[in-house]
Every structure is written in structure tokens, then in C-alpha cells.
Specification:
The protein is mainly beta. The chain has one domain: 7 Propeller (Methylamine Dehydrogenase, Chain H), CATH 2.130.10. It is built from 2 helices and 16 strands. The strands form 4 sheets. Strands 8, 9, 10, 11 and 12 form a 5-stranded antiparallel beta sheet that branches. Strands 4-5-6-7 form a 4-stranded antiparallel beta sheet, with no helix packed on it. A 4-stranded antiparallel beta sheet has the order 13-14-15-16. β10 and β11 form a beta hairpin. The longest helix is centred in the last third of the chain and has 8 residues.
Length: 197
């Protein structure tokens, strides 16, 4: 399958995923537009990162529908995308989604929280009792992402200027959060700190 790039329109009436094929020189060629079956917020720019993500094996594309509180799941096929499933996000105004293997977590901004799903056989199944609040009602979260080994879920919070982390147990449930100020990360990684000065 040739390399591709995916974005979403965030249209308030009919959200769409847009696919582009990518040539070796980086040139993008439109491949198609595909309805998510849901709605965006209508804003020209969805203030988030990770609103469209590919599964690890490249077989599935996940798209958030912030206006209808849903996730859309597309099968990635040689001739484009096929809408395979839709599921409620477990909260309101999902703005980011993360996937690690068969585990999916949605980040909800309207109700600052995360909610988990199992991805199997082209379907998203909500994990019971997997919804977890973020550090505060004013978190204004931006992105959710797994660590490379899939054992920790990381959420950035603009409203609190913090980063929250959740440990993932064997059932796929998130434990936490543990929250630290984002400036503390910068301080720990600074050259003077590393040099012991």
C-alpha cells in the first residue's frame, strides 16, 4: 500500500476524512473524501493534536467527531477508506484519540476525561468503567498519546499547564492520573540541569 496522509474537515454538518497519496518526493495527490458519519465543531481549526490517527499496523484510521461526540473507524484499503464503525466517545467534544495495538483511548474536551475501547474485527467496543477524569474541570486537554510500549497514556492539559499520565493495566484500564507541571519537564531536560550546574 502506498504511503498516505490523512486529515479531517471538522465540518459541523458532515465531517469528512480526506486522504492524500504521498510520492517519494513528498508530493501529495488528493485520493478522496470520506464521510465520517458524524459532525465536527465547524471551526476552521480543531484546537487539538491527534484528531486523526492510524493504527500501528496501518490497517485502521480513527477520526474524532467533536460536534457529535463520536469516534469513527475506517478500514484503510488500497483504493481508499471504508467507514467500518462509529462509537460514542464516552464523553463530550472528543478532540484527540490514541491507539496502541487493539487498545484505543479517546480524549474528551467538553468533559475533560479519557475513555477506553477495544478495537477488534473492525469494531470499537467501549471498555466498561474505563472513563477517567483529568486533573481538573478546567484542564482544556490538547492531546492523548501512548508511550511506545503502550503501558502509559499521556495527556497534555493547556488549561492547567500540566501533563497527566495514566498507567494502563492488563485489562486496558487507565490508573491515575499522576500530574506534573509542564515547566518541570523543561527544567529537568535543560542542558544546565543535565550538566549538574
Amino acid at each position: 500500500m502506498s504511503p498516505a496522509v490523512y486529515v479531517q474537515t471538522n465540518d459541523a454538518a458532515r465531517n469528512e476524512a480526506i486522504a492524500f497519496s504521498r510520492a517519494e518526493d513528498g508530493t501529495l495527490t488528493p485520493q478522496g473524501r470520506y464521510s465520517t458519519g458524524g459532525r465536527g465543531t465547524g471551526s476552521p481549526h480543531l484546537a487539538s493534536a491527534g484528531s486523526v490517527v492510524l493504527s500501528d499496523d496501518g490497517r485502521w484510521l480513527l477520526v474524532v467527531n467533536a460536534g457529535s461526540d463520536e469516534l469513527s473507524l475506517f478500514a484503510v484499503q488500497p483504493d481508499g477508506l471504508r467507514l467500518a464503525d462509529r462509537a460514542g466517545s464516552g464523553g463530550s467534544k472528543p478532540t484527540s484519540v490514541a491507539v496502541s495495538g487493539a487498545l484505543v483511548y479517546a480524549l474528551n474536551n467538553g468533559t475533560p476525561s479519557i475513555s477506553g475501547f477495544h478495537l477488534a474485527d473492525g469494531k470499537l467496543a467501549a471498555i466498561p468503567d474505563s472513563t477517567r477524569p483529568l486533573s481538573s474541570a478546567g484542564a482544556d486537554p490538547a492531546q492523548v498519546s501512548f508511550t511506545t510500549d503502550g503501558t502509559v497514556l499521556i495527556v497534555t492539559e493547556r488549561g492547567t499547564d500540566t501533563i497527566s499520565s495514566f498507567l494502563i493495566d492488563e485489562r486496558g484500564h487507565a490508573q491515575g492520573p499522576t500530574t506534573i507541571k509542564s515547566w518541570a519537564i523543561r527544567h529537568m531536560a535543560s542542558p544546565s540541569r543535565q550538566a549538574g550546574r
